[in-house]
Amino acid sequence: MSEPAPGIFTFEIFQPHFCELLLSEVENFEKWVNTTKFQVIRPSILNKFGVVLDDFGLQTMLDKLMKGFICPLSKALFAEIGGSTLDFHHGFVVEYGTDKDTDLGFHVDDSEVTLNVCLGKQFSGGELYFRGMRCDKHINTKSHPKESFDYFHTPGRAVLHHGRHRHGARATTSGHRVNLILWCRREMVKFKKDCSSWCAECFEEKRKKLLPLDWDETEEVPSRKEKEPAAPPTTGDKWKWGVRK
Ligand SMILES: [Zn+2]
Description:
Residues 217-245 are annotated as: Disordered. This protein is an alpha+beta fold.
């Protein structure tokens, strides 16, 4: 496993034969949908192509994948959002190509943790671009240069990321790309809602709150112990420690 950018983990997950079997299962389902004119629910409002894998018998397999594989990983990699307590999944495939959806706009997922696996086939383009994790309040804030990361898909290889890691997919410029997406959620267990361990803006807000009042950030930071007054501060003291209102 590697972490090419903070909070983005990539690793080999499926053998080529398994990818082929899964792709043929999806193709069979789509043929049946076309023949019967059955109205299927597409995976998300952003995708006109692709199918929900839970809808045609793969729910148990995907649940085992989440509980047996993603949960132990998330416990270690995403402990701050309760990675070991994931208890619900939404599993689907998305399809991109010149006769399908080509790209996917900038968004966050409706998940705690997302597994994204390229199943094939032959394609060019379609890379994922990431722009940092944000909570709802800060979702539209600027990204910092160090938060910019582009990931190029390889069949059989997975990307695991925080659901609030803002991302999008660039255009698949030729061929046909199919990816399996598993949104893993925690529905039953409530978890503390302190976003500062992963949202860069909440982190910055919290950091600033913990700075002394009248703090000039260009000055060297003194240790809290050195400057903390022994007696309650009197009016006019420069250093008043505490939470900035
Ligand atoms: Zn935030």
